[in-house]
Amino acid sequence: MRKIILxxxxxxxxxxxxxxxxxxxxxxDQDYGLTDFFKACDAIFIGRKSYELIMRTDPKMFAAMKxxxxxxxxxxxxxxxxxxxxxxxxxxxxxxxxxxxxxxxWLFGGAELVEAFIKNNLISELLLSVHPVIxxxxxxxxxxIKERINLVLLGAEQFxxxxxxxxxxxxx
Length: 172
What we know:
alpha/beta
C-alpha cells in the first residue's frame, strides 16, 4: 500500500500561510530534501485553493505527478494529469488510489484537506519543515482537530538556516 505523506512548511507558531495567504517566509535557499521527496512520490493530493495558486504561479511544478484535486466546485482540471475528486466519495477514492501500484503520495494541503485526512486516519507520515519564524497570524496547519492525536517521532534533521524537519507517524 502506498504511503500518504503530509509534507508541509510550517512556521514555529504552526501557520502554513501568512495573514494574507503569503508564503514569502518559506526558505528556498537550499533543497531541504525536496528533490529526493519528489522522486519518491508520483502523485499529489491537493485542495482546490492550493491547486489554483500553483497553476497561477508555477503550472509545471507537478507536471511529472498525477494530481488529485479535492473540490466540489472545480470543473476544468486544466491539464491531462489532473483528476478532480468530490467530497461525496472522498474516503473510498483515497483508499482506492492508495491501494494502486505506485510510489508515495504527497498530501500537499491546504488545512481543510489535511483535517479531512486526519479525521479519516489516512495519513501515513507527517514531514513538517518548521521554519524559524513566528507569523503571529495566518492559516494554521491544524484546524478543527478536537481530539488529541499522539505521534511517534521517526527522525529530525536540522539545517544551517535554522529550519528543522520533523518526521512523524501517527501512533497506532
